[in-house]
Amino acid sequence: MVWADVAVSAAGSTVWELAAKQLPALIGANEENQLAVLRGLSAIPFFRAATTAELLGWYLLAEFGALLSRCGDHERAQFDALGAVRVVDVPLRGGVRRAGCTMRPYRALLVAEIGLKHNGDMALADAMIRGAAGAGADAVKFQSYRTEDFISDETLTYTYRSGGREGTESQFAMFKRCELTESHLSRLKAVCDRAGVMFFSTPTSPAGVDALQRIGSAYLKNGSDYLGHLPLIWHMTGSGIPTIFSTGMATESEVAEAMHAFRGAGGRDLTLPGCTSAYPKPPDAVHLRRINTLAAKFNCRVGFSDHTAGCEAAAAAVCLGASLIEKHCTTDRSLPGPDQWFSSDAAEFRELVEWVRHAEKMPGSAELRPTAVEAKSREQFRLSCTAARQRLL
Questions:
Q1: 283 and 191: one domain?
Q2: CA–CA separation, 294 vs 300, rounded Å?
């Protein structure tokens, strides 16, 4: 096994080639050393679903953060998307900025789903980004679409709870009001950059994918309603941007078909969040064990789209291996719109961050042996052999 070859064939990007050239200086050409590193990483629960190329990437990034300073924005976003690293810009004197990274093997990506909650008001969208960033979100997500892509009958209506009471309006008018142009998306991406959070969105057409690629979206999200739209999946794959497939309402065969389309078109960087499309969903509709099923059947990173009230489900999902948590977020639940009332405000999202970061420390080792903190207890509390009576010399 030659790791340099694995690195270049895995992605073919400049940063992988740079890393491959410096590999001998890191662990040498000794195959046993390389296998030992792989075995060590794959023993960590977070890495068990990773491919050989991903394991290599995580290890290299832990050692070669400086290489990122020679990458473009897209390559850096791809590495941040792996979930084991955090790409940062470090301000230096003279205004120079340099990229760096740190290992975070149990750190889930926390996504604040803003979606349509801005109601077409860019000032409100800006405030929502800043609120999510201040609450500890790693990324924010919007929806970028043309209403005509999915609604042809303008007489269709939708009834939802808003401001404490039910209201009904035209679906077409509701979605049209919240449409975001490429100019809007570019502006929101700039606000995210200033706030220190990643920007991404859910497109509904190839043109939407292209716009997000031009803007520099960190991810592409394929919504549950579009999981069966294979031409859109193929176009997403062609962008090379890390992709998320929502699995709400899907059967196993439908997820498998989408995965086949993605991988058949050369896609590699994918996360599958467990999702129940109900808002909010009661505890008995969460089905967290689907996270394990997705990881086992499709051999990729998994996550959790949290539509519950509270923070417990997200914390439990992380303990089951979720590397991405998505939660609806708003600045004020009393704002008009269909998604406001069940969303987290900044205070609740901050609490979710605390729950998840605490839970990430808990999975620990699967080895059945005394831990370091048990050493003193073992010495003090374990039964031992003593003489029944004093021995006379």
A1: yes
A2: 8
